[in-house]
Structure formats: structure tokens, C-alpha cells
User: Fold this.
Amino acid sequence: MSPTNSSLYQKRIAVAMSGGVDSSVTAALLLQAGAQVEGVFMRLAQPEVDQHQQRAEAVAAHLGIELTVLELGAAFREKVLQPFIRAYFAGLTPNPCVFCNRLIKFGLLLETMLERKADLLATGHYARLIPDGRGGLALRRGLDPRKDQSYFLCRLQAAKLSRMLFPLGEKRKSEVYELAASLGLSGRHGAESQDVCFLGQESVADFLAAQNPTGGGLTAVEGRIVTVDGRELGRHRGVHRYTVGQRRGLGIPDATPYYVVALDVLNNQVVVGKPEDLLQKTIRLADLNWLVTPPPLPGRFAVQLRHRHQPAPALVESAPDHTITLTFDQPQRAPAPGQYAALYLEDQLLAGGEIIAG
Assistant:
């Protein structure tokens, strides 16, 4: 845990508590370190939000800490849900957790708790903040490679890192469950949190089908499924129901499977191809967010395109139009506009930018 346990003594620390095992153990560990801990539960757009709140209240009562409940549903809808919906209907593949972390958890929530005189905001993320030797903090991968969540933090503001705390970054998930049992938390916390909290058991397609998107470029009507060379193979049920790299649900029989290669919203078409059509050696990024002092470019970094993507070496260069060009040593499968590419140097997260088309 960084800062050190001794430096946490008597610190006022707000812990974002969801009612799940990770945030529950986070609060307990900080209490053991001698911090003054206050839990905070965010009412966002979670299905069964009352049950989640009740679990967070039960954990807080067991630990003997105060729990503040914040009604952030309106802000969450404005800053996360609506951009997520608009992006999907525009043929993009957004990651709501990335911009929720920047705008809600380490945006609105952090600012609110600092105004209430908290010194730090702690969460159950599996990531590490380590002194960088120059008076700042380096954001590094969690030690459990199967649970590392640093990718989702690639849009955090570097200036706010000193106000954050990730006590689980040096632990493995199995240790967290063991700690929960030893601390008497088993049966009080809920199941592990889902990647996209507002979906519940609902699919992305079903969630989007229930929305009423407005604005230019949004389409939920049927259209053509075409190959990369323009041959029509079938009909789609709305571009928002498909993502780049998708194989299932296309309804196109062939000797080898087809995959979604691109989403052409302008012409209301789903473009499909074979596995080799998914490979790209060069992609572009917009609005690169650095968590460190930006190094001179061009430079070589490991680039992660999705949460479960194996980072791949790439040359990173500035383009004349102020975008960033990534050229991979080996072509990568299915990079999709709207996703985020995270840049790493060894296990340190350096930056993150949104993949753009073309």
C-alpha cells in the first residue's frame, strides 16, 4: 500500500464502497493502518441499487465506520451513460469504465470528498501508486496479472494521483477473499462487481434498444451487411448491435467464419471480412492523456488496446494533425474506434488515448 502504513495514521480517508468484497477489504485494511476511514456509496444507475447500498451499510456497520450516501445518478447519466449511448449509435466501441473513472470516481466523487475534508480517496482497484523518485507518483500495474485494472485508469489526471490510494494493488484476489473471511466480512459483502455496473444481467444490445438516442449520425434501423469489397451478404438489425471483431449473430454461412471489420454509420452498413481483415499494423489516437511528463516522440512503448489485450510493442509518433500514430511491430487484431489505447513502459502506465478511424 502506498503511501506507507505509518504515513496513513490519522489520515482522513474516504473509501468508495460498492458493497463488494474489494472495497470492503480496502476499508478494513485502512482501519488496520490507523486511518480515520469514512465509507461513501454512490447511487448511480446500478440495477438493484438499494440492495447494493444495504450491503455497503452492513459492511460499514460491521467495521464501525460512517457511510455517506451520494446521489450521483443525474451526473452519471450526463457524463457516462449519454456519451456511452451516443458513441455506440455512432458506430464506436466506448469503454464507460474509463471515462467513469476520470469524471465520476476520481472527478466528482474525489472533489466532493476533498471538500468534506478527506485527505485521500481510496478504491478497490488492482493498481499501484509508487513514488517515482522525483517527488511524484508512478501508476503501475497491480501485482495480480489476472486482476490488474490499471488500463481503466489511463485517463486519470496526473495532478490528482497524490490524492488517490489503491490498497489492493499489491495483493492477489485470493488473498483478498482470505482477508475478507478473517475480518468477518464474508456474508456481508456482495458478489464481485461487474465490469459495466449499469448493465446488470442485460446485454449491451438490449440496453441500447431501450434507449431513445437523439442527435446526428445515430441509427437503430436495419441495413446491409457487406464484405470489405462491397458485396451484400445479409441484413443487420441496427449498427449499434455490432462491434468490431464480433463473430456470432451475423447469420452468414460460409466455409470459414466472417467477422465484423468495421461499422459504417454514414451508409448504415456492417462491414464483414475474414480474420486477416481484422489485422491492423497502424492506428491513430486522439487526445492523448499523459500521467507523466510527456516524453519526446517518436518513442517505443508497449500498447494495450483492451482490458484483456496482451500489450504489444509499437512506435509512437506525433502526426501533423496533432493526433498520435501507433505503428505496431506486428499487426494487432480488431482495434476499434472508440476504444482506448494505453501506453506502458514495463509495468508503468504512461498515457491513454482514444482510437479514431482512419
